[in-house]
Specification:
By secondary structure, the chain is mainly α. The chain is built from 6 helices and 3 strands, in the order H-H-E-H-H-E-E-H-H. It is about 55% helix and about 10% strand. It is globular.
Length: about 140
């Protein structure tokens, strides 16, 4: 591993690719950010349910702006996780769906989402306990 956290190769064809998300310049870090960011994870989770058009996806991911959803979809498409299918109709119809890689990544996210939702009662108790303890310190 070199001083930048890479394999010491320049990433040219034929070189052995070594990815380490903890290395500052590793491209896997950017993909992880796209996947685990608020809008990326919600977009992938929504598309796990099936193909959606832009406005249907925007309604499903409640609270995302048109601009943020567009940026998120572009990043996920660039990373090979989302496929954009434009139909030559009037008006144009654009559908978004997960690629096989995107489906695998989203499947892992769905497990995490379900775990968080299933354990939210514990999280709420922990938050109350934390808030009470910190309120007492500030008094």
């Amino acid at each position: 591993m070199d001083e930048n956290g890479g394999s010491g190769t320049d990433g040219c064809p034929g070189d052995a690719w070594v990815f380490d998300v903890f290395a500052r310049h590793c491209p896997s870090r950017g993909t992880l950010e796209h996947v685990t960011g608020r809008w990326g994870s919600l977009t992938l989770g929504a598309l796990y349910e099936g193909s959606l058009r832009f406005n249907a996806l925007r309604r499903r991911v409640d609270g995302v702006s048109e601009k943020m959803l567009s940026q998120t979809l572009h990043a996920l498409e660039r990373d090979g996780l989302v496929h954009r299918e434009a139909q030559p109709t009037n008006p144009p119809r654009v559908d978004y769906e997960l690629t096989p890689l995107g489906r695998q990544v989203a499947g892992q996210l769905i497990g995490l989402i379900q775990l968080v939702e299933d354990r939210m009662a514990e999280v709420m108790v922990a938050r109350e306990r934390y808030d009470e303890a910190h309120a007492a310190r500030e008094s």
